[in-house]
From TrEMBL:
Protein name: CYTH domain-containing protein
InterPro entries named among the record's database cross-references: CYTH-like_dom_sf, CYTH_domain, YgiF
MF GO annotations: inorganic triphosphate phosphatase activity; metal ion binding
Residue span, CYTH domain: 1-207
Species for this entry: Hornefia butyriciproducens
């Protein structure tokens, strides 16, 4: 399961200040900060059959690597997102212009569910995103999480919107730990809890 807090970052808030915050620096582990260029495409049928069943199918390039992702059974409240997720690494040759659901065959029951929904229909690109992710890992002593900031664009059809988002993703430990980090940061910076995923915001551009 993926568990993360999402915040929209205010226009006048400097991301450097968040990452250099004294509290964040005090719980940061010794791994290097990462900058990851991401290009993600979400696929569905033309009538969004997967979305109707609250399933997201994504192919994303992260620097020089490709990852296929399925997300389902998601909930969100006050910026806290919880959902089932599976990721599979892909080779570039495994990623055609329009992928088939078969690449997720190793994923078990959720793959079977997708096949039942698609009923042989083709996948088409629906929403596209390009952004740069800046991330560090945090260790509170009780939990490990990733703090990341995404800056870029979400595109749907011929429309696009900017994205400037902060995420705190729990890797191990308690949800209470990332909530405490989020509360502390939102008290000091212009951060607004965001219940909509990037994909939901993208769908609003084409509907």
């Amino acid at each position: 399961m993926e568990i993360e807090l999402k915040y929209l970052i205010g226009e006048n808030t400097e991301i450097d200040r968040i990452f250099n915050d004294d509290f964040i620096q005090s719980i940061r582990d010794d791994k290097d900060e990462e900058m990851i260029r991401m290009h993600a495409v979400y696929y569905d049928t033309e009538d969004d059959a997967l979305a109707e069943h609250c399933i997201a199918l994504r192919i994303r390039r992260e620097n020089d690597y490709y990852i296929g992702t399925l997300k389902w059974d998601g909930t969100s409240e006050n910026g806290m997102h919880r959902r089932q997720e599976v990721n599979i690494p892909l080779n570039e040759e495994d990623v055609p212009a329009v992928p088939k659901a078969d690449i997720f065959q190793p994923c078990g029951e959720i793959y079977d569910e997708i096949c039942r929904i698609l009923k042989g229909r083709k996948l088409v690109p629906r929403v596209e995103m390009t952004f740069v992710r800046r991330q560090i890992r945090l260790d509170t002593g009780k939990s490990i999480c990733v703090l990341s900031a995404d800056q870029g664009e979400i595109r749907g059809g011929d429309r696009e919107i900017p994205v400037r988002e902060l995420e705190i993703e729990l890797l191990t430990g308690s949800e209470k730990e990332i909530m405490a980090i989020g509360d502390r940061l939102s008290a000091g910076y212009d951060l607004k809890p965001e219940d909509r995923s990037k994909l939901e915001r993208g769908f609003r551009l084409i509907r």
